[in-house]
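> example.struct
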C-alpha cells in the first residue's frame, strides 16, 4: 500500500504531537504566559493514537516522529512508545524533545523502542539559553549526556538560527556537537503563528552560515539516515555531519513525504498551511479500520503543493507547539 497525494508525492512519514504543552517558552514558538492549551480530556488517548498510526502503517507509512509541545510532559510516554514499536511496518520511531526531562526518561524510552532523538537547542551559552527559552541549559546538557549513555543514536541537535540572537553562537555549537558526536542541524525561522512571524524578523539565509563554516572547515557533501528534509555536509576527515533545513531560502516541498497529527487528533497536511482533517470524532464514533484507511487516503488529497511562507506569511495562525516542527 502507499499513500500518494494529488502531486504524486508518497507520504511515508507521520509526525505525531502528543501534547501542545511545554515546560520551556521559546520566544519564536510560544508566547510568554500563554495558557490557551488544549484540555487533556481532548487529547487522543494512547490507544487512539495507536489506532490512527496503525492505519497509516497499513497505508505504507514507515516512519513516525513523536513530538509536542514537549512530549515528555505527557505522562507514561514510554507506554505509547511500546505500543507503536510493536506495529508491523513501522521501522523508524524517533522522538523530538527539548531534553529537559531526558535525564529521567532516556533509559525507559530506549528500552521501549526509541532508537534516535532530535533535541532542540539554540545555544550553548547559558545566559542566552535562558533569554530564548526561559529555561536552564544544564538540564539540557545533563539530558543529552544521559541519552548518549543509554545508547540513543544518532542524537541530532536542531538549532534555529536567528540574526542578532544566536547566529554568533554557530561555531561554539559546532564545537559542542563535534566533541559529543552529535549531528547538528540548522533551521531557518518560519512564520508559523504570531511568534513565528515575529521571529521571521531575525531571519538569516542558511547558505550564509554554510559559506561562513566553509571558511573554517573543509565541508564535503554527505547523506544521513532519516526521513526529513535536511541537506547534509560533513567535515572532511571526521564523521561529524551538519544539516541545513531551509524552508524559506530553498524549500523542499516538491519531495515532501509527511503530514502531522495534533494531540487532539487533527491531521495537518502541511506545516505551512491550515488544511486539516479532524479524525477524533470519527475514532470516538467507532469508525472501522477500513473506513479509517479510506478517510486518511481522502484527507491526503487536501495536501497543498507547497507552503506560502514567502508569498503569504500571515497564513498560518496556529503556534508551532500545536504540531511540532
Ligand atoms: S512546508 Fe508543507 S509541503 Fe513543504 S515540506 Fe513542509 S509540510 Fe511539506
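> example.seq
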Amino acid at each position: 500500500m502507499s499513500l500518494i497525494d494529488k502531486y504524486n508525492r508518497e507520504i511515508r512519514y507521520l509526525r505525531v504531537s502528543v501534547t501542545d504543552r511545554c515546560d520551556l517558552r521559546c520566544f519564536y514558538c510560544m508566547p510568554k504566559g500563554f495558557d490557551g492549551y488544549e484540555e487533556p480530556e481532548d487529547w487522543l488517548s494512547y490507544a487512539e493514537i495507536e489506532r490512527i498510526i496503525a492505519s497509516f502503517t497499513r497505508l505504507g507509512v514507515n516512519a513516525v516522529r513523536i513530538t509536542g509541545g514537549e512530549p515528555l510532559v505527557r505522562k507514561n510516554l514510554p507506554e505509547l512508545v511500546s505500543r507503536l514499536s510493536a506495529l508491523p511496518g513501522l521501522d523508524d520511531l524517533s522522538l523530538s524533545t527539548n531534553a529537559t526531562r531526558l535525564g529521567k526518561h532516556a533509559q525507559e524510552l530506549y528500552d521501549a523502542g526509541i532508537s534516535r532523538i532530535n533535541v532542540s537547542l539554540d545555544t550553548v551559552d547559558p545566559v542566552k539559553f535562558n533569554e530564548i527559552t526561559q529555561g536552564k541549559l544544564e538540564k539540557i546538557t545533563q539530558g543529552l549526556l544521559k541519552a548518549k549513555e543509554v545508547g540513543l543514536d544518532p542524537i541530532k541537535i536542531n538549532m534555529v538560527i536567528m540574526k542578532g540572537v544566536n547566529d554568533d553562537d554557530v561555531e561554539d555549537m559546532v564545537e559542542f556537537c563535534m566533541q559529543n558526536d552529535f549531528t547538528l542541524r540548522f533551521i531557518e525561522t518560519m512564520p508559523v503563528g504570531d511568534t513565528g512571524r515575529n521571529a521571521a524578523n531575525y531571519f538569516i539565509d542558511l547558505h550564509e552560515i554554510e559559506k561562513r563554516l566553509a571558511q573554517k572547515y573543509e565541508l564535503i557533501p554527505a547523506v544521513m539516515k532519516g526521513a526529513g528534509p535536511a541537506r547534509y555536509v560533513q567535515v572532511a576527515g571526521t564523521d561529524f555531519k551538519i544539516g541545513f533545513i531551509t524552508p524559506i531560502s530553498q524549500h523542499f516541498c516538491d519531495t515532501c513525504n509527511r503530514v502531522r497529527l495534533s494531540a487532539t487528533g487533527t491531521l495537518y497536511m502541511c506545516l505551512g498551511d491550515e488544511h486539516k482533517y479532524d479524525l477524533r470524532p470519527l475514532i470516538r464514533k467507532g469508525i472501522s479500520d477500513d473506513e479509517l484507511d479510506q478517510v486518511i487516503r481522502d484527507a491526503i488529497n487536501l495536501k497543498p503543493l507547497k507552503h506560502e511562507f514567502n508569498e503569504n506569511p500571515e497564513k498560518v495562525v496556529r503556534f508551532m507547539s500545536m504540531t511540532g516542527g
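> remarks
Residues 229, 247, 251-253, 256, 258, 270-272, 306-307 surround iron/sulfur cluster (CB under 6 Å).
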